[in-house]
Specification:
7-stranded antiparallel beta sheet; single chain; Nitroreductase; F420H2_quin_Rdtase; 129 residues; Split_barrel_FMN-bd
Length: 129
């Protein structure tokens, strides 16, 4: 990762952590809940994705630098809020999947934001129970 990409990631992450996520958590948006790898507490992060059959697909804009991805690596059991309902499942990181191609099948507005703000895209599939 270049210095410029690292700076972009840090600026975008800080903005999301301090402004976007606290507001978004209060709205009826799609959300992924992981278990904090250090605290053991639930951590909720707004995400854009799509339910296809019994799998929920998302693309992380900062890949393994994202805190929720780090939490998934430590414990892949997650919950996903879709249309106001919570679903449990197991998250899988898919580094071999083409995230740009995947974004073409996910919600357009979120996909555009992920492409614009992202620095290290990573596809995630959640197999729902």
């Amino acid at each position: 990762m270049t210095d410029r990409q690292d700076l972009k990631r840090r600026v975008v992450s800080a903005g999301q952590r301090l402004v976007v996520n606290p507001v978004a958590r209060r709205l009826p948006l799609t959300m992924i809940e992981t278990i904090g790898r250090k605290t053991g507490q639930p951590r909720r992060t707004p995400v854009g994705g799509r339910l296809i059959n019994n799998q929920f697909w998302i693309v992380s804009e900062h890949g393994e630098h994202s805190q929720y991805v780090r939490n998934i690596k430590a414990n892949p059991a997650v919950r996903v809020r879709i249309n106001g309902d919570w679903h449990t499942g197991i998250a899988h990181l898919l580094p071999d999947d083409d995230p740009i191609q995947r974004l073409r099948n996910l919600p357009r507005l979120n996909s555009a934001a992920v492409r614009a703000m992202g620095t290290d895209l990573l596809t995630i599939r959640v197999d729902l129970d």
